[in-house]
């Protein structure tokens, strides 16, 4: 390979690395997480409206539980409903102060880089779709966390409840 070919190959590798890093970059604290949470709520409520359900109310305690679980998944490199400490959604929401509930549900996802992709993935899964379209659920909290050094890069949690 000639000198120009090597330079072009290096440029492609550098540009590709920069683009890939941007796909899984950790968002600035605060604003990006809040924007992602708000977008998931908006998209979820749009799906519920199409199904004839009332919009979900954002509840701080559910947001805290969901954010904590997303961060746990990102930090410990897993996706699942059981936390790295063995906690269930019931334990996590009660720890966050969401008590007196009579119904709870949780959706988790990993690898979807946008709120639109996460909600579309959930809507394509019968169990997750059922949680989103369960008109008996009234409250929501959303978690969003990233770890560029993990398997999936991006982690999402929706906690739903009624009390």
Q: Can you give keywords for this protein?
A:
alpha+beta, 163 residues, 4 strands, single chain, four-stranded mixed beta sheet, 6 helices, disordered N terminus
- Summarize the biggest pleated sheet: 4 strands, mixed
Fraction of helical residues:
40-55%
The coarse overall form would be globular
Write down the Rg: 18 Å
Q: Give the strand tally.
A: 4
Low-pLDDT runs of 5+ residues are 3-30
* Cα-to-Cα separation, first versus last residue: 68 Å
Spatial strand order of the main sheet: 1-3-4-2
Strand content: 15-25%
Query: What is the typical, i.e. mean, pLDDT?
Result: 87
> Strand pairing plus helix content: what structural class?
alpha+beta
What does this structure look like?
- The chain is an alpha+beta fold.
- Helix content is 50%, strand content 17%.
- It contains 6 helices and 4 strands.
- It has helices spanning 3-23, 31-50, 60-76, 89-95, 115-123, 126-132; strands at 57-58, 103-110, 139-146, 154-162.
- It has a 4-stranded mixed beta sheet, with helices on both faces.
- Strand 3 (139-146) and strand 4 (154-162) form a beta hairpin.
- Helix 2 (31-50) packs parallel to helix 5 (115-123) and helix 3 (60-76) crosses helix 4.
- The N and C termini lie far apart (68 Å).
């Amino acid at each position: 390979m000639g000198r120009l070919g090597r330079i072009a190959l290096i440029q492609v590798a550098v540009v590709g690395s920069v683009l890939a890093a941007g796909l899984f970059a950790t968002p600035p604290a605060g604003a990006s997480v809040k924007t992602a949470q708000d977008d998931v709520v908006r998209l979820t409520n749009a799906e519920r409206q199409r199904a004839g359900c009332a919009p979900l109310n954002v509840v701080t305690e559910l947001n805290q539980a969901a954010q904590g679980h997303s961060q746990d998944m990102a930090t410990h490199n897993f996706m699942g409903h059981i936390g790295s400490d063995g906690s269930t959604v019931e334990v996590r929401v009660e720890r966050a102060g969401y008590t007196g509930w009579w119904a709870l549900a949780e959706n988790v996802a990993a690898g979807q880089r946008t709120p639109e992709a996460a909600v579309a993935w959930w809507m394509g899964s019968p169990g997750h779709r059922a949680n989103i379209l369960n008109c008996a659920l009234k409250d929501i909290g959303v978690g969003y966390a990233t770890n560029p050094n993990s398997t999936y890069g991006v982690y999402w949690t929706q906690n739903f409840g009624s009390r």
